[in-house]
Write a structure and sequence with these properties.
There is one protein chain. This protein is of the alpha+beta class. The chain contains 17 helices and twelve strands. A five-stranded mixed beta sheet has the order 5-6-7-8-9. The model is unreliable at 1-52 and 185-214 (pLDDT under 50).
Length: 481
């Protein structure tokens, strides 16, 4: 029996582990569910102990425990051409009828046979619910893993065990699974959960967004979607949303790559956009989603942008061609690698880098590597349509509307950087960088065209330039203070 299967069998259910009393992580205090009620109208004093709803629901765990266990049907025959990846469960090129007969000895019995119709291909046969099941079996020679579907397993024993669990749970808990997200209710949070875990009340409110207040912007107020990917849990695991057991041995659910939130795949579709990234999981700066970065570091704006802007305004405003003249590529690459490695901006003062163009190149590199540009893909067409209007007042009104549709983190950064660029233009007689010239430089950087418009992107360059130029020159009108 494999280790992962043993764990799923022998871990104790956690339904009542934390009910009624638990210790909050990071503190020494305990929270009790005991409440005292005084009745002043009489001399009697009554104490009531609140019955807390179990934190974890164990119904699906109990169902999994009852699933049939895999029983290998051993073959004693010797095969000279036996595939190396199979053991004594391999029975050679026997007929389907013979294989079906062999596995009917007991529920959970399984074997592997070579297909008589397609020599060189193999079939997994096992008994579930007193009926033989036949599945074409594959083997990944590079990963040394067996599979019949998407899930991959190191052993056929694990594959059969997972299959039996999946079929048994589907047969005996189908209605429960279909309604488990509807039954999710408020519950106490276990001690190993951080405050960013989703609450059911937040989920119910997910369709009532509030307009962000930009002049009181805080990173913690930003909405961010979870970055879910299929995940395998070794040992029993429970969904953080519906609090039900995540059944199976492999790929039981999904985990957010930014905050480690775990849930069923079906629950992930209704989780609100309340991801609060864990700084330990966000290991880079370049190429990281903007909202993810500022929430992970609890900053209004990325530190790299603020540090570069501070240094540029300190010693680069009068430099001819600032932002247009490229910096030394090796120095920019060095700084990028250091920032990604350490998570903070190193010394970028004149003593460390006398060429201010390196610092300008660094901030441009940051904008270029954003997965979603500052002016987001979904608003690209709206911004383009705004500057196509003939009347200037209509252009400004449409741009203002489009800006208010930006995610708060993107709006805040764009406002901050455009005000910096406006200060750059005040020295245009010396640095030769007018709003138009800066629009040419930052148009394709701050509002990269979506992939579906890649072929037409060249034709949109004049509009991109005009948009950024307008944001620089009219930022006092367009951006809320």
């Amino acid at each position: 029996m494999s280790r992962s299967y043993d764990l799923a069998q022998h871990f104790p259910p956690m339904e009542t582990s934390f009910a009624g009393r638990f210790t909050k992580k990071g503190s020494g205090s305990s929270f009790n569910s005991q409440v005292s009620v005084d009745d002043d109208s009489s001399n009697n004093r009554h104490s009531y102990e609140q019955v807390a709803e179990p934190v974890w629901k164990s119904h699906l765990y109990q169902v999994q425990l009852k699933a049939p266990k895999p029983q290998r049907v051993v073959c004693t025959n010797h095969f000279s051409n036996k595939p190396f990846q199979y053991g004594k469960e391999y029975h050679g090129p026997i007929s389907r009828e013979e294989a079906d007969r062999l596995v009917m000895q007991k529920e959970g019995c399984y074997l592997i046979r070579e297909s008589q119709r397609q020599p060189g291909s193999f079939v997994l046969v096992f008994n579930f619910s007193n009926q033989p099941r036949n599945y074409k079996l594959y083997f990944d020679t590079e990963e040394n893993q067996h599979y019949v579907g998407e899930k991959r397993f190191e052993t056929t024993q694990d594959l059969v065990a997972d299959g039996l669990i999946t079929l048994y749970v589907d047969l005996n808990a189908k209605d429960y699974i279909e309604h488990m997200t509807l039954n999710a209710g408020p519950a106490a949070r276990p001690p190993d959960q951080q405050d960013f875990r989703t609450t059911h009340e937040q989920t119910l409110q997910r369709n009532t967004p509030t307009r962000p207040v930009y002049n009181t912007f805080k990173a913690s107020d930003c909405e961010k979607a979870h970055n879910f990917k299929t995940h395998s849990y070794y040992g029993p695991h429970w969904c953080h949303y519906c609090r039900n057991f995540m059944w199976g041995l492999k790929a039981q659910g999904v985990r957010c790559q930014d905050c480690s939130y775990d849930c069923h795949k079906q629950c992930s579709t209704i989780i609100p956009n309340n991801c609060s990234p864990d700084r330990k999981l966000v290991k880079r700066v370049f190429g990281v989603d903007l909202t993810t970065l500022i929430k992970a570091h609890d900053q209004k704006r990325p530190q790299i942008v603020e540090s570069c802007v501070h240094e540029l305004e300190k010693r680069g405003l009068e430099l001819e061609g600032i932002y247009r003249v490229p910096g030394f590529a090796d120095d920019i690459t060095y700084l990028r690698n250091q920032i990604d490695k350490e998570g903070t901006v190193p010394d970028i003062t004149e003593q460390a880098f006398d060429d201010i163009n390196v610092i300008a190149g660094l901030v441009k590199s940051y904008f270029r590597t954003l997965p979603i540009p500052v002016i987001t893909f979904d608003l690209y067409d709206q911004f383009i349509a705004a500057v196509k209007m003939e009347d200037k007042s209509d252009v400004l009104k449409a741009l203002s509307t489009a800006l208010k549709s930006l995610p708060p983190a993107h709006y805040e950064l764009l406002k901050y950087f455009c005000r910096h660029l406006q200060r750059v233009t005040k020295y245009k007689d010396r640095n030769l960088m007018s709003g138009e010239n800066l629009g040419i430089v930052f148009g394709p950087t701050l509002m990269r065209a979506p992939d579906h418009l890649a072929m037409e992107a060249v034709g949109y360059i004049p509009y991109q330039k005009k948009i950024i130029q307008s944001l620089i020159e009219e930022q006092d009108v367009l951006f809320e203070r």
